[in-house]
Design goal:
globular, single chain, 142 residues, mainly beta, 5-stranded antiparallel beta sheet, 46% strand, Jelly Rolls
Length: 142
């Protein structure tokens, strides 16, 4: 598998309204930001809770927020200085998919009472594949 992305990508997604319940698109195998399927999981984050920092070495994340609102902060370093990109995702705010290639630090915060993300990853989880550090090791003002 060849990861061709060199930076995060935000893809607008469709919500198809229906009287019986809406359909929320997530990911198609024909999209340029999709490489391979490894695993998919849901992660809940409580309001005001912050999860992170995590950096994958090989895995590409495809993150969708179908419930709630979550603020994502992606960080990489240029000349030892952190460069931050912020994304606020949720169905009522910005229903999009955030694709994060390997090599970027990621942290996120729940902004509503109930917040859930779906990550469709291109690899299965491996304990040693990612680096984790505490929130205070990268200086960011939440």
């Amino acid at each position: 598998m060849d990861n061709k992305l060199i930076q995060p990508v935000l893809t607008q997604l469709k919500i198809i309204e229906s009287e019986k319940g809406a359909v929320y698109h997530a990911l198609k195998r024909t999209e340029s930001s999709f490489f391979e399927f490894g695993e998919a999981y849901f992660s809940f984050v409580n309001k005001g809770a912050i999860k992170g920092w995590k950096k994958h070495k090989k895995l590409t994340m495809n993150i969708i927020v179908p419930v709630g609102v979550i603020k994502f902060v992606v960080c990489h370093f240029s000349s030892d200085k952190p460069i931050f990109s912020e994304y606020i995702l949720g169905p009522g705010t910005n229903y999009s998919r955030l694709t994060v290639p390997p090599g970027y630090w990621l942290a996120f915060e729940g902004l509503e009472d109930i917040n859930c993300l779906l990550n469709v990853a291109d690899l299965e989880h491996e304990k040693l594949e990612a680096d984790n550090i505490s929130l205070n090791e990268i200086k960011y003002s939440w």
